[in-house]
Amino acid sequence: MSPSLLGAWAFLMVAPPPVAASFAQVAPGVIDGAPVFRRTPDRYRAVVLLHGLRPHPFRESSVTLADRSIWEEPSSPLVRRLGQESDVFAFSYGQNVSVGDVSAAPELAAGLRRLRALGYEQVVLVGYSAGALIAREFVEDDADAGQMLSCALRSAGAETQTSRSVSEGFGSLAEWIPDALLSDINMPGEDGYSFIERLRSIPQPEIATIPAIALTAMARPEDEDRALSSGFQMHIPKPIDIEELTKCISGLVRDYP
Fold first, then answer.
1. Does residue 34 share a domain with residue 133?
2. Structurally, how many domains does the chain consist of?
3. Sheet holding 180-184, edge to edge
4. End-to-end C-alpha distance for the chain, whole angstroms
5. What is the pLDDT of residues 95-132, one digit of tens each?
6. pLDDT band at 79 (very low <50, low <70, confident <90, very high)
7. Average per-residue pLDDT in the chain?
8. Residue ending a domain, choose from 125, 141, 157
9. Are residues 26 and 130 in the same domain?
């Protein structure tokens, strides 16, 4: 019998401060003198560039405009080289908020949704310095990432439900008890450690004893030790290999019937 899963996926629950942001195509960026946002025929990979911090040369304050860096421009050697095999896009942002708030900017999520709607089979995020952190934060917290993981597990034969917050996860548990549970660690407000500790303290044993896997980008030995001591049975660092994750889930269900 295929294991059923509950994934507790968390997202920012408080509106972040406004941030200037822009998502634009840079290769090919202009056709017949007009900006474009479309997939080149027979191309199925989009590359999205995310710049790092850009200190202003004449003042100490943060750059708040959503200006692209030089290497994100259509004329840069990097964009020209990437543009030989992929369509290239650039996400630019102001620096008046934190990395986490930039990754939550609606322009980034909306731009990536547009790329998926255009039919790209691969969307690759390439970030420099802070841009790499923004890319990682987005991949960890994006709702579509949770849905894609759920779809992959269903394809492997599992029955799944997904939740976008700790409170939503507990609400789902009141109606449906899975054979195994997956949870992120980095969550605003209440993190995965608090979530699993609360779960283990629930008086109903059928819920309190559900085997759980921590999915996180924190891959240090001390991170794994903390996850296990908090109540998780396994700690799996990102990026996640679906085939390996499926084997881990099957093993958990077998070992914790």
1. yes
2. 2
3. 159-163, 4-8, 180-184, 212-216, 234-237
4. 12
5. 777 777 787 788 888 898 899 889 887 888 888 877 66
6. very high
7. 79
8. 141
9. yes
Q: Which domain holds residue 173?
A: 4-13+143-255
Query: The pTM is what?
Result: 0.53
Could you tell me the CA-to-CA distances from 16 to 102, 103, 144, 147 in Å, in that order?
Answer: 9, 10, 19, 23
- Domain CATH number, residue 183: 3.40.50.2300
Report which of 104, 165, 97 is spatially closest to residue 137, judged by C-alpha positions.
104
* Helices and strands (H and E) in the chain: how many: 10, 11
Tens of pLDDT, residue by residue over 1-36, are: 444 444 433 323 334 456 788 999 999 877 766 778
Same domain assignment for residues 34 and 108 = yes
Q: Which of 73-82, 139-148, 233-242 has the highest mean pLDDT?
A: 73-82
Hey, what amino acid is at 78?
L
Question: Among residues 2, 1, 17, 5, which one has the least CA distance to residue 183?
Answer: 5
Helix (H, G, I), strand (E, B) or coil at 139: helix
Instruction: Please enumerate in sequence order all residues whose Cβ is within 8 A of that of 46, keeping only pairs 6 or more positions apart, or say none.
Output: 39, 86, 87, 88, 89, 115, 118, 120, 122, 123, 124
- Higher pLDDT residue, 229 or 145? 229
Q: Which of 49, 74, 73 is nearest to 126 (CA)?
A: 49
Beta-strand relationship, 159-163 and 180-184: unpaired
